[in-house]
Every structure is written in C-alpha cells, then in structure tokens.
Amino acid sequence: MPPTNIVDLHGLKKACSNCTLHDLCIPMGVSDTELDALEAIINRRRPLQRGDYLYRPGDRMVALYAVRSGSVKTSTLADDGQEQVTGFHLPGELLGLDAISEGIHPCSARALETTAVCEIPFDRLEELSGQVQGLQRQLFRIMSREIQSDEHLMTLLGKKSSEARLSAFLLSLSSRFGDRGFSRQTFNLTMSRNDIANYLGLAVETVSRLFTRFQAAGLLEVDRKLVNILDMDGMHNMAGAQPVDDRRSDNKRG
Fold first, then answer.
1. pLDDT tens by residue, 182-191
2. How distant, in Å, are the alpha carbons of 89, 109, 185, 189 from that of 86?
3. Are residues 55 and 141 in the same domain?
C-alpha cells in the first residue's frame, strides 16, 4: 500500500505519542523537513484480523513493524514441532528486530485481535538514519531494550515459581498498558490461557488454578478475559520483586 501522507505535523506528533514510532520518527531536534522525510517512508497497512499473520518463519525481512492498535503474538517452532510463544506485543511496540542479523524472520507474528500496524521499510530506514540526526541512536536504544527484555524473560522462567511467573506477567501488562495511558488496574487479556501457559513455561491447568487462587486471595478479579487487579502491592509481593518487563515492554515516557 502507498504511504499515507499526514500534512498536519502537530497531528502526526500527537498520533505517534504513544507509539514506538515516536522514538523513531520524532527524535529530539528533528526539523519539519526531516519529519516529512520520515513520515513519507511509513506505510499504514490494512488492519490484520484475528489469526492473520504479519510474517512467518523464513519470510524475507523487508521492514520493521510497529503496533498502532490491537496486539500481536510472536512464536517459533521448538525442536519437537510444537509452538513456543516468545512474546506478546502491544500498541507502541516494534516487531521484526530479531530478523535484522540474517535478513530472515526466525519466528511468526500473528494478530490476536483486529490489529493495525505501521510498516517501516528497513532499507529506507537505513538510508535515513545517516541523514536524520539522532535516528540511528534511537534505533540502537530500542534494540538495547529488546536485549534487556529478553534477559528479564530468561530470569523469570529460570528462577521464579509458578505464582511469581504469572504475577510478574500480569504486572508487566499492567505497566505497559499504564505507559500507554490505559488503566493499570483493569485490562483485557487478548491472549488465550494456553498462550499464557506456553509463554510462562507452565501447564494450562496450572495457570487456571493460579487465577482461581489469586482471586480467592483477593489479589484480583477475573471475568473471562477481563482482569481487575485489586491489590497491586500484594501482586508485587507475589512476584518477589519489582514488575518484570516481559518481552518488548519498553517505551516508558518521561
């Protein structure tokens, strides 16, 4: 699809304020001319429907993608052929960074609900990074946060109890929704219990049992996919530490 031109620069900044593209497209001190050049390479893709793939393993990497609305699950295939969920991506988070090294996507990205994304052609982004001051550094910062997020995940799965894993996961979602201007206490889980269990390395029965246990303890309420955290301090205590930012939980605004 051809890029969508936005004439109102103030409107563009407002539209990108809760998006990773805010860091990429509007680095400090960018001029209106540079902003026009950055906006010109961004494609607004047709919304994905639930279950649609953004890309699959083995697809050639041609762009980075930023979630504008909705949510996306990334996953790969384990040696036994079973799916391994590697992340859940919310509005304002980038996908495709793990394909930069080989130029091939090592995992799949699939919409969990109706989802809109921005497509940033990587070759054009590389060209502009040499022209727009601060753009390359911004990209490096985002990649660094990706590495930190992966390290947090490894710590979570390697050392935490099942109770701590689930509570840390829910606290991470709470933090990420809050950073985007949504409620930190009440939010929808767009991913299935099976996906959560897969991601946390737990049995789905264990996840269901833990939700029931957390409700009985007065930590939260659950109504199907709607979660309402009642005791934030109690959830932190259950996690055994500060909230662990699970995959791609950057973009905190100053």
1. 899 999 999 9
2. 10, 10, 24, 16
3. yes
Residue 132 and residue 91 in one domain? yes
Residue 78 contacts residue 125 (beta carbons within 8 Å): no
Count of C-beta atoms within a 10 Å radius of residue 144: 11
Query: pLDDT confidence of 248, banded at 50, 70, 90?
Result: very low
Q: Which domain holds residue 214?
A: 160-239
Determine the pLDDT at residue 29: 63
Note whether 113 and 221 are same-domain residues: no
Same domain, 139 and 167: no
Place of tokens 């295939």: 77
The burial class, CB within 10 Å (0-12 / 13-18 / 19+), for 222 is middle
Beta strands of 45-129 (E only): which ranges?
Answer: 53-55, 63-69, 72-77, 83-89, 94-95, 108-111, 116-121
The domain that holds 123 is classified in CATH as 2.60.120.10
Per the structure, how many domains does the chain have? Answer: 2
**Cα angle: 52, vertex 153, 23; to 5 degrees:** 65
User: 89 with 147: CB under 8 angstroms?
Assistant: no
Enumerate the H helices of 42-84 as residue ranges: none
Confidence at residue 241, expressed as pLDDT on a 0 to 100 scale: 53
Partners of 186 in beta bridges: 228
| Mean pLDDT of all residues belonging to the chain | 82
- Decide which of 120, 150, 180 is a domain's last residue: 150
